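Notes to self after the call with IL:
- keep both proteins in one doc
- input above output, always
- annotate only the second one for now

Protein 1:
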Amino acid sequence: MVGSISAMSPADDGSWWTAWPTVIVAVVLVLLPGWLLARAWGVRGVAAPAAAP
Protein backbone atom coordinates (compact mmCIF):
# COMPACT_ATOMS: atom_id res chain seq x y z
CA MET A 1 0.00 0.00 0.00
CA VAL A 2 2.93 2.33 0.66
CA GLY A 3 4.12 1.98 -2.91
CA SER A 4 0.72 2.95 -4.30
CA ILE A 5 0.23 6.20 -2.39
CA SER A 6 1.15 8.27 -5.46
CA ALA A 7 -1.44 6.34 -7.49
CA MET A 8 -4.15 7.33 -5.00
CA SER A 9 -3.62 11.08 -5.33
CA PRO A 10 -6.36 13.12 -7.05
CA ALA A 11 -4.09 13.93 -10.00
CA ASP A 12 -3.19 10.32 -10.78
CA ASP A 13 -6.31 8.31 -9.96
CA GLY A 14 -9.59 10.09 -9.30
CA SER A 15 -11.52 6.86 -8.83
CA TRP A 16 -9.49 5.87 -5.75
CA TRP A 17 -9.67 9.38 -4.34
CA THR A 18 -13.46 9.65 -4.65
CA ALA A 19 -13.87 6.18 -3.13
CA TRP A 20 -11.92 7.03 0.04
CA PRO A 21 -14.81 8.71 1.93
CA THR A 22 -17.05 5.71 1.26
CA VAL A 23 -14.34 3.28 2.37
CA ILE A 24 -13.66 5.24 5.55
CA VAL A 25 -17.36 5.47 6.45
CA ALA A 26 -17.87 1.76 5.76
CA VAL A 27 -14.89 0.79 7.93
CA VAL A 28 -16.08 3.02 10.78
CA LEU A 29 -19.62 1.66 10.62
CA VAL A 30 -18.31 -1.92 10.70
CA LEU A 31 -15.63 -1.51 13.38
CA LEU A 32 -17.23 1.01 15.73
CA PRO A 33 -20.11 -1.18 17.01
CA GLY A 34 -17.78 -4.13 17.54
CA TRP A 35 -15.23 -1.94 19.33
CA LEU A 36 -17.91 -0.42 21.56
CA LEU A 37 -19.29 -3.87 22.41
CA ALA A 38 -15.83 -5.25 23.16
CA ARG A 39 -15.07 -2.24 25.33
CA ALA A 40 -18.37 -2.50 27.18
CA TRP A 41 -17.88 -6.23 27.82
CA GLY A 42 -14.25 -5.62 28.78
CA VAL A 43 -15.26 -3.00 31.35
CA ARG A 44 -17.94 -5.31 32.75
CA GLY A 45 -15.54 -8.24 32.82
CA VAL A 46 -12.99 -6.19 34.76
CA ALA A 47 -15.52 -4.52 37.06
CA ALA A 48 -17.45 -7.69 37.96
CA PRO A 49 -14.52 -9.61 39.57
CA ALA A 50 -13.39 -6.42 41.34
CA ALA A 51 -16.87 -5.93 42.82
CA ALA A 52 -17.33 -9.64 43.70
CA PRO A 53 -15.22 -9.62 46.90
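Protein 2 (the one to annotate):
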Amino acid sequence: MCLSTKTKLCLLNTLPRIITSSTANDYIIYLKEPIINRAILQRFLKSLSHLDIKINVQMQMVKEDINNIQSRTPLEDEESNKLREAIQEYTEIYNMVAENLCYVKPAMFIKIFDKEIIKSHNTHTQYLLFQMAVKYPKLVITYILSNIQNNSAYKKIYISYLGSLLARLKTDRKIVKKSLEHFSNFLKIKIYDSNIKGDNNNDKHNNSDGDSDRDGRDDKHNNNDGDNNIHNNNKQDNNNHIHNNISKEIILMSQTFLYILCFHRELLLENEKLIYNIFNSNIIKYMNKNIVNTFIRTCGNNHGINLNHNINLKEYNSDNYIVDESLCYFPFDPTLIKDIGEKYKKSYRIF
Protein backbone atom coordinates (compact mmCIF):
# COMPACT_ATOMS: atom_id res chain seq x y z
CA MET A 1 0.00 0.00 0.00
CA CYS A 2 1.35 3.38 -1.01
CA LEU A 3 -0.82 6.37 -0.15
CA SER A 4 -0.27 9.88 -1.41
CA THR A 5 0.25 12.69 1.07
CA LYS A 6 -3.15 14.10 0.16
CA THR A 7 -4.85 10.76 0.85
CA LYS A 8 -3.09 10.44 4.19
CA LEU A 9 -4.18 13.92 5.26
CA CYS A 10 -7.75 13.22 4.19
CA LEU A 11 -7.73 9.97 6.14
CA LEU A 12 -6.48 11.64 9.31
CA ASN A 13 -9.04 14.43 9.00
CA THR A 14 -11.90 11.94 8.78
CA LEU A 15 -10.65 9.66 11.56
CA PRO A 16 -13.52 9.22 14.06
CA ARG A 17 -13.02 10.16 17.69
CA ILE A 18 -13.99 6.65 18.78
CA ILE A 19 -13.47 3.63 16.53
CA THR A 20 -16.22 1.02 16.82
CA SER A 21 -16.38 -2.57 15.64
CA SER A 22 -18.34 -1.42 12.58
CA THR A 23 -15.59 1.02 11.51
CA ALA A 24 -12.50 -0.83 12.79
CA ASN A 25 -11.97 -2.76 9.55
CA ASP A 26 -11.81 0.51 7.62
CA TYR A 27 -8.81 1.74 9.64
CA ILE A 28 -6.90 -1.28 10.94
CA ILE A 29 -5.15 -1.77 7.57
CA TYR A 30 -3.44 1.59 8.02
CA LEU A 31 -1.39 0.33 10.95
CA LYS A 32 0.92 -0.94 8.20
CA GLU A 33 1.26 2.54 6.76
CA PRO A 34 4.27 4.58 8.03
CA ILE A 35 3.73 8.13 9.27
CA ILE A 36 -0.03 7.84 9.80
CA ASN A 37 0.05 4.58 11.77
CA ARG A 38 0.92 6.49 14.94
CA ALA A 39 -2.34 8.46 14.83
CA ILE A 40 -4.28 5.33 13.88
CA LEU A 41 -2.84 3.31 16.77
CA GLN A 42 -3.47 6.14 19.21
CA ARG A 43 -7.13 6.29 18.19
CA PHE A 44 -7.50 2.51 18.50
CA LEU A 45 -6.01 2.50 22.01
CA LYS A 46 -8.20 5.41 23.05
CA SER A 47 -11.25 3.54 21.74
CA LEU A 48 -10.27 0.32 23.52
CA SER A 49 -9.73 2.21 26.75
CA HIS A 50 -13.16 3.82 26.40
CA LEU A 51 -14.79 0.41 25.94
CA ASP A 52 -12.68 -1.09 28.74
CA ILE A 53 -14.02 1.46 31.22
CA LYS A 54 -17.57 0.91 29.96
CA ILE A 55 -17.24 -2.85 30.49
CA ASN A 56 -15.91 -2.39 34.02
CA VAL A 57 -18.87 -0.20 34.94
CA GLN A 58 -21.33 -2.68 33.44
CA MET A 59 -19.71 -5.59 35.29
CA GLN A 60 -20.55 -3.89 38.56
CA MET A 61 -24.22 -3.71 37.56
CA VAL A 62 -24.89 -7.34 36.62
CA LYS A 63 -25.49 -10.34 38.83
CA GLU A 64 -25.05 -12.91 36.07
CA ASP A 65 -21.86 -14.99 36.17
CA ILE A 66 -19.25 -13.54 33.80
CA ASN A 67 -18.66 -16.98 32.24
CA ASN A 68 -22.35 -17.28 31.35
CA ILE A 69 -22.27 -13.82 29.82
CA GLN A 70 -19.41 -14.88 27.54
CA SER A 71 -21.10 -18.15 26.58
CA ARG A 72 -23.89 -18.67 24.04
CA THR A 73 -26.47 -19.21 26.75
CA PRO A 74 -29.50 -16.94 26.22
CA LEU A 75 -29.67 -14.15 28.78
CA GLU A 76 -32.91 -12.73 30.11
CA ASP A 77 -31.45 -9.74 31.94
CA GLU A 78 -31.10 -6.62 29.78
CA GLU A 79 -27.95 -5.40 31.54
CA SER A 80 -26.28 -8.77 31.05
CA ASN A 81 -27.06 -8.64 27.33
CA LYS A 82 -25.58 -5.14 27.10
CA LEU A 83 -22.42 -6.37 28.81
CA ARG A 84 -22.20 -9.34 26.43
CA GLU A 85 -22.45 -6.99 23.45
CA ALA A 86 -19.80 -4.66 24.90
CA ILE A 87 -17.39 -7.57 25.52
CA GLN A 88 -17.96 -8.90 22.00
CA GLU A 89 -17.29 -5.49 20.46
CA TYR A 90 -14.23 -4.94 22.65
CA THR A 91 -12.80 -8.38 21.85
CA GLU A 92 -13.29 -7.88 18.12
CA ILE A 93 -11.39 -4.57 18.11
CA TYR A 94 -8.74 -5.84 20.54
CA ASN A 95 -7.98 -8.87 18.37
CA MET A 96 -7.61 -6.65 15.29
CA VAL A 97 -5.04 -4.48 17.07
CA ALA A 98 -3.22 -7.46 18.59
CA GLU A 99 -2.90 -9.17 15.20
CA ASN A 100 -1.49 -6.03 13.57
CA LEU A 101 0.79 -4.94 16.41
CA CYS A 102 3.73 -6.50 14.57
CA TYR A 103 3.62 -3.61 12.08
CA VAL A 104 4.14 -1.04 14.83
CA LYS A 105 7.57 -0.07 16.13
CA PRO A 106 7.87 -1.09 19.80
CA ALA A 107 9.17 2.32 20.91
CA MET A 108 6.24 4.06 19.24
CA PHE A 109 3.73 1.69 20.82
CA ILE A 110 5.22 2.29 24.27
CA LYS A 111 4.98 6.08 23.89
CA ILE A 112 1.33 5.88 22.85
CA PHE A 113 0.55 3.33 25.56
CA ASP A 114 2.19 5.64 28.07
CA LYS A 115 -0.09 8.49 27.01
CA GLU A 116 -3.38 6.66 26.54
CA ILE A 117 -3.40 3.66 28.89
CA ILE A 118 -0.93 3.83 31.76
CA LYS A 119 -2.96 6.28 33.87
CA SER A 120 -6.39 4.82 33.10
CA HIS A 121 -6.30 1.64 35.23
CA ASN A 122 -7.78 -0.39 32.38
CA THR A 123 -8.35 -4.03 33.25
CA HIS A 124 -7.97 -5.53 29.76
CA THR A 125 -6.28 -3.15 27.30
CA GLN A 126 -2.95 -3.27 29.15
CA TYR A 127 -2.50 -6.81 27.87
CA LEU A 128 -1.30 -5.29 24.62
CA LEU A 129 1.78 -4.22 26.60
CA PHE A 130 2.06 -7.80 27.87
CA GLN A 131 2.01 -8.96 24.24
CA MET A 132 4.80 -6.52 23.41
CA ALA A 133 6.76 -7.78 26.44
CA VAL A 134 6.52 -11.37 25.18
CA LYS A 135 8.49 -10.35 22.09
CA TYR A 136 10.58 -7.51 23.56
CA PRO A 137 10.91 -8.23 27.31
CA LYS A 138 14.04 -6.14 27.89
CA LEU A 139 12.64 -3.11 26.10
CA VAL A 140 9.33 -3.12 27.99
CA ILE A 141 10.89 -3.80 31.40
CA THR A 142 13.54 -1.11 30.86
CA TYR A 143 10.79 1.36 29.96
CA ILE A 144 8.95 0.61 33.21
CA LEU A 145 12.10 0.68 35.36
CA SER A 146 13.20 4.01 33.88
CA ASN A 147 9.87 5.58 34.83
CA ILE A 148 10.26 4.28 38.38
CA GLN A 149 13.83 5.56 38.64
CA ASN A 150 12.99 8.94 37.12
CA ASN A 151 10.16 9.63 39.58
CA SER A 152 7.44 9.77 36.95
CA ALA A 153 4.16 11.41 37.94
CA TYR A 154 2.63 7.95 37.66
CA LYS A 155 5.43 6.18 39.50
CA LYS A 156 3.13 4.12 41.72
CA ILE A 157 1.33 2.75 38.65
CA TYR A 158 4.66 1.81 37.03
CA ILE A 159 5.66 -0.02 40.21
CA SER A 160 2.44 -2.04 40.01
CA TYR A 161 3.08 -2.76 36.33
CA LEU A 162 6.62 -3.95 37.02
CA GLY A 163 5.57 -6.30 39.81
CA SER A 164 2.69 -7.77 37.86
CA LEU A 165 4.71 -8.17 34.64
CA LEU A 166 7.75 -9.82 36.27
CA ALA A 167 5.44 -12.13 38.20
CA ARG A 168 3.27 -13.21 35.27
CA LEU A 169 5.47 -13.08 32.16
CA LYS A 170 7.25 -16.31 31.23
CA THR A 171 10.61 -15.05 30.06
CA ASP A 172 14.34 -15.65 30.48
CA ARG A 173 15.18 -16.00 34.18
CA LYS A 174 18.26 -13.85 33.67
CA ILE A 175 16.03 -10.96 32.63
CA VAL A 176 13.85 -11.41 35.73
CA LYS A 177 16.88 -11.66 38.00
CA LYS A 178 18.54 -8.55 36.56
CA SER A 179 15.30 -6.56 36.67
CA LEU A 180 14.68 -7.53 40.29
CA GLU A 181 18.24 -6.50 41.16
CA HIS A 182 17.64 -3.03 39.73
CA PHE A 183 14.31 -2.69 41.51
CA SER A 184 15.63 -3.96 44.85
CA ASN A 185 18.49 -1.46 44.66
CA PHE A 186 15.94 1.37 44.29
CA LEU A 187 14.10 -0.02 47.32
CA LYS A 188 17.25 -0.35 49.45
CA ILE A 189 18.12 3.28 48.80
CA LYS A 190 14.57 4.37 49.69
CA ILE A 191 14.63 2.43 52.94
CA TYR A 192 18.04 3.76 53.91
CA ASP A 193 17.23 7.36 52.95
CA SER A 194 14.10 7.20 55.09
CA ASN A 195 16.13 6.00 58.08
CA ILE A 196 13.60 3.27 58.83
CA LYS A 197 14.50 1.37 61.98
CA GLY A 198 13.61 -2.24 62.55
CA ASP A 199 11.67 -3.52 65.54
CA ASN A 200 14.70 -5.56 66.51
CA ASN A 201 17.84 -3.50 66.06
CA ASN A 202 20.06 -6.34 67.23
CA ASP A 203 18.84 -8.78 64.60
CA LYS A 204 21.78 -10.04 62.55
CA HIS A 205 19.89 -9.24 59.36
CA ASN A 206 18.93 -5.70 60.34
CA ASN A 207 20.51 -3.16 58.02
CA SER A 208 20.88 -0.28 60.50
CA ASP A 209 24.47 -0.99 61.57
CA GLY A 210 26.36 0.50 58.64
CA ASP A 211 26.70 -2.08 55.87
CA SER A 212 27.01 -1.99 52.09
CA ASP A 213 23.26 -1.60 51.54
CA ARG A 214 23.62 2.01 52.64
CA ASP A 215 25.04 2.68 49.20
CA GLY A 216 27.53 5.17 50.64
CA ARG A 217 24.81 7.53 51.91
CA ASP A 218 24.57 9.22 55.27
CA ASP A 219 21.68 9.86 57.67
CA LYS A 220 20.99 13.42 56.58
CA HIS A 221 18.89 12.21 53.62
CA ASN A 222 15.10 12.20 54.08
CA ASN A 223 12.41 10.64 51.92
CA ASN A 224 9.61 12.96 50.81
CA ASP A 225 7.93 10.68 48.26
CA GLY A 226 4.21 9.96 48.15
CA ASP A 227 1.39 12.18 47.04
CA ASN A 228 -1.94 10.53 47.84
CA ASN A 229 -3.80 10.72 51.14
CA ILE A 230 -3.84 7.50 53.21
CA HIS A 231 -6.51 6.53 55.72
CA ASN A 232 -5.15 4.55 58.66
CA ASN A 233 -5.35 4.31 62.43
CA ASN A 234 -1.77 5.39 63.13
CA LYS A 235 -0.46 8.84 63.75
CA GLN A 236 0.80 10.42 60.53
CA ASP A 237 3.74 12.80 60.39
CA ASN A 238 2.38 14.35 57.17
CA ASN A 239 0.49 13.35 54.03
CA ASN A 240 3.53 11.50 52.66
CA HIS A 241 4.51 9.35 55.59
CA ILE A 242 3.00 7.15 58.23
CA HIS A 243 4.62 5.83 61.40
CA ASN A 244 8.44 5.72 61.61
CA ASN A 245 9.22 7.60 58.37
CA ILE A 246 7.60 4.94 56.19
CA SER A 247 6.33 6.47 52.95
CA LYS A 248 3.50 5.03 50.89
CA GLU A 249 5.96 4.50 48.07
CA ILE A 250 8.18 2.32 50.25
CA ILE A 251 5.16 0.25 51.30
CA LEU A 252 4.20 -0.35 47.66
CA MET A 253 7.78 -1.07 46.56
CA SER A 254 8.31 -3.53 49.43
CA GLN A 255 5.02 -5.26 48.69
CA THR A 256 5.91 -5.48 44.98
CA PHE A 257 9.29 -6.97 45.85
CA LEU A 258 7.68 -9.73 47.94
CA TYR A 259 4.98 -10.28 45.32
CA ILE A 260 7.58 -10.95 42.60
CA LEU A 261 9.40 -13.40 44.87
CA CYS A 262 6.16 -15.35 45.42
CA PHE A 263 6.36 -16.24 41.72
CA HIS A 264 10.16 -16.60 41.58
CA ARG A 265 11.10 -18.48 44.71
CA GLU A 266 14.42 -19.49 43.15
CA LEU A 267 15.54 -15.89 43.86
CA LEU A 268 14.68 -15.96 47.58
CA LEU A 269 18.09 -16.78 49.03
CA GLU A 270 20.00 -14.12 47.13
CA ASN A 271 17.48 -11.54 48.32
CA GLU A 272 17.19 -12.75 51.92
CA LYS A 273 18.86 -9.69 53.46
CA LEU A 274 16.30 -7.28 52.04
CA ILE A 275 13.49 -9.70 52.95
CA TYR A 276 14.66 -9.69 56.58
CA ASN A 277 14.94 -5.90 56.57
CA ILE A 278 11.33 -5.58 55.43
CA PHE A 279 10.06 -8.08 58.00
CA ASN A 280 12.11 -6.57 60.84
CA SER A 281 10.72 -3.10 60.22
CA ASN A 282 7.20 -1.76 60.45
CA ILE A 283 6.83 -1.74 56.65
CA ILE A 284 5.27 -5.20 56.59
CA LYS A 285 2.38 -4.10 58.81
CA TYR A 286 0.94 -1.72 56.23
CA MET A 287 0.96 -3.90 53.12
CA ASN A 288 -1.90 -5.72 51.43
CA LYS A 289 -2.57 -8.53 53.90
CA ASN A 290 -3.22 -11.06 51.12
CA ILE A 291 0.27 -10.54 49.69
CA VAL A 292 1.93 -10.80 53.10
CA ASN A 293 0.01 -13.93 54.07
CA THR A 294 0.77 -15.55 50.71
CA PHE A 295 4.47 -14.75 51.04
CA ILE A 296 4.61 -16.14 54.58
CA ARG A 297 2.73 -19.27 53.53
CA THR A 298 4.74 -20.03 50.40
CA CYS A 299 8.16 -18.53 51.14
CA GLY A 300 8.49 -17.98 54.89
CA ASN A 301 10.44 -20.56 56.89
CA ASN A 302 11.01 -22.44 53.66
CA HIS A 303 13.47 -22.48 50.77
CA GLY A 304 16.25 -21.66 53.25
CA ILE A 305 14.47 -18.52 54.48
CA ASN A 306 13.69 -18.25 58.20
CA LEU A 307 11.66 -15.11 58.80
CA ASN A 308 11.46 -15.54 62.58
CA HIS A 309 9.32 -12.41 62.75
CA ASN A 310 7.25 -11.18 65.66
CA ILE A 311 4.18 -9.91 63.87
CA ASN A 312 0.71 -10.33 65.24
CA LEU A 313 -1.02 -10.87 61.91
CA LYS A 314 -4.49 -10.53 63.44
CA GLU A 315 -3.63 -7.15 64.86
CA TYR A 316 -1.94 -5.93 61.71
CA ASN A 317 -4.76 -7.14 59.48
CA SER A 318 -7.46 -5.31 61.42
CA ASP A 319 -5.72 -2.17 62.64
CA ASN A 320 -2.84 -1.28 60.37
CA TYR A 321 -3.84 -2.23 56.85
CA ILE A 322 -4.02 0.86 54.66
CA VAL A 323 -6.90 1.29 52.25
CA ASP A 324 -4.91 2.39 49.22
CA GLU A 325 -5.78 1.50 45.65
CA SER A 326 -2.16 1.06 44.58
CA LEU A 327 -1.74 -1.82 47.05
CA CYS A 328 -4.56 -3.72 45.33
CA TYR A 329 -3.70 -3.00 41.69
CA PHE A 330 -2.13 -5.85 39.72
CA PRO A 331 -2.46 -5.00 35.99
CA PHE A 332 -1.70 -8.49 34.74
CA ASP A 333 -3.88 -10.48 37.09
CA PRO A 334 -5.93 -13.06 35.15
CA THR A 335 -8.31 -11.23 32.82
CA LEU A 336 -12.03 -11.95 32.92
CA ILE A 337 -12.28 -11.83 29.12
CA LYS A 338 -11.69 -15.41 27.95
CA ASP A 339 -10.38 -14.60 24.47
CA ILE A 340 -7.63 -12.38 25.84
CA GLY A 341 -6.61 -14.93 28.47
CA GLU A 342 -6.39 -17.68 25.85
CA LYS A 343 -4.30 -15.50 23.55
CA TYR A 344 -1.43 -15.26 26.07
CA LYS A 345 -1.82 -18.64 27.76
CA LYS A 346 1.60 -19.97 26.68
CA SER A 347 3.42 -16.89 27.96
CA TYR A 348 1.43 -16.41 31.16
CA ARG A 349 2.51 -17.69 34.57
CA ILE A 350 -0.17 -19.06 36.90
CA PHE A 351 0.53 -18.92 40.63
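Annotation: The chain is about 55% helix and 0% strand. The longest strand covers residues 241-242.
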